[in-house]
Amino acid sequence: MNNKMLGTLAMSGAPFLFLDYCMHGMNGGGEQFQHTSMSGILSIVYISAWMCSMVGLSNLKATGESKSAKVWLIIPLVTLSIANIWNGWEVIQPGANTFLYHLLDMFWPISNLFMFFFGIKVILARQLQGWKRYIPLVVGLWLPFTILLNAIAGMSTTIMMVSGIYSAFTWTVLGYIVYTSPVTDKLRYAPVVI
Predict the structure, then answer these.
(1) Is residue 16 included in any domain, yes or no?
(2) Per-residue model confidence (pLDDT) at position 188
(3) 0.85 cut: is pTM over it?
(4) What pLDDT sits at residue 28?
(5) 4-18, 26-40, 145-159 — which one is most confidently predicted on average?
(6) Which keywords are on file for this protein (predicted)?
């Protein structure tokens, strides 16, 4: 799959976490968040779009061309795939209260935490040009930003909306980078693993 298609899919799915917040988080986050099958579906679209961005960044060799650079691109695809297993469970059995359900749910924040370090790796690799090099880190700052907002103001509908808008905007820009950055002849397309 080429980067134009991956970027289009990434940009199309980027707002779906915000849509989920709008539909299911209007009473605030945390325990008040409404777990529904629709929430699981929206989350599958969102995580799948994120995966498209990661495959596109792999095509661009955003973390460099070393063996360790390839690992930096495989890890998020693994953590996001596990997060999507949780999303599928959310579709089938919303709000299940089992150990495995909660364990799989942890891969949402694990994926976001890894994105922070991935963003730093992209900056250091200097494969993306100009401002584009910094966007993966801005995306990776979503989790710390959301935690900070919650610590300052508490979990509320307003915080959910601000966090959702931040997510929608930054992940859309990441998809735009995948869409617009040329893949040079020396770079091969990576297989799509979703």
Answers:
(1) yes
(2) 46
(3) yes
(4) 55
(5) 4-18
(6) Membrane, Transmembrane, Transmembrane helix
Counting other chains too, the contacts that 18-24 makes at CB distance below 8 Å and 24 or more residues apart are: 18/161, 18/164, 18/165, 18/167, 18/168, 20/46, 20/164, 21/160, 21/161, 21/163, 21/164, 22/161, 22/164
Mean pLDDT computed over every residue of the chain: 90
- Domain assignment present for 156: yes
* CATH number for 148: 1.20.1070
Could you list the residue range(s) of the whole structural domain that residue 145 is in? 3-180
- The long-range contacts involving 82-90, CB below 8 angstroms and separated by at least 24 positions, are 82/107, 83/47, 83/107, 83/108, 83/110, 83/111, 84/43, 84/44, 84/47, 84/48, 84/51, 87/40, 87/41, 87/43, 87/44, 87/47, 88/40, 88/44, 89/40, 90/35, 90/37, 90/39, 90/40, 90/43
Of 56 and 1, which is predicted with more confidence?
Answer: 56
Using DSSP, how many helices (H) and how many strands (E) does the chain show? 9, 0
Contacts of 12 (CB under 8 A, 6+ apart): 49, 175
- Would you say residue 188 lies in a domain? no
In a domain, 187, yes or no: no
Number of domains in the chain: 1
Which residue in the block uniquely carries the two structure tokens 């730093």? Answer: 120
